[in-house]
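Sample intake sheet
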Amino acid sequence: LACAGLCAMYAGGGWLDEGAVPSETDLPVRRLDFARSNALRTSLLHRAADAFFARGTQEDQAAYQTFGAANAGWLDDFALFMALRDAREGAEWSGWGADLVRREPSAMSRAAQSLAPGVRYHRFVQWQFFEQWARLRKRAAADPDRLLHGRQGRRAQGQSGAAGAHHEGGGGDPGRKHGRRDRRSQPPSRHHPGHG
């Protein structure tokens, strides 16, 4: 589902070829294989980001720049952190070296320059996340029953009563463990929402 949605959206925007992802994959249908679906999603996002920066429309580029300006208080720090984590294959940030752990300006500047493509990629991902979240909220406000239960809402149907929804084998938030958010992979930051 996530892969199909990404393909349709980015192909429509001209960022991915329509055949970028096979019509069939070996991903399980009735349960979430987070590791494998995440790898496919990440591959799609990298390809979409590359295409966007190479041939995005002026309107899309303007929207990207507007998002960056509106979120300047946290976006660059977060994107740099994510690029650093990618470069270290997900290693915990406290082991990245004292200069980076202390956020020494010279070390941060060197990292930002050497990892510029990764920083730019993660800025793109955050922009797209916020764009998709805004669309999801709009759809939810218009017809919450359809979003939650996969069918047309009662108001649109003119029916009363609601059937329960059953979620089978859901993956949930991979960052949550035993009901609480696992913060070991998150750096101390005064900028990024949720860190503190």
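Comment: DSSP finds nine helices and two strands in the chain. Residues 2 and 109 are 35 Å apart (CA to CA).
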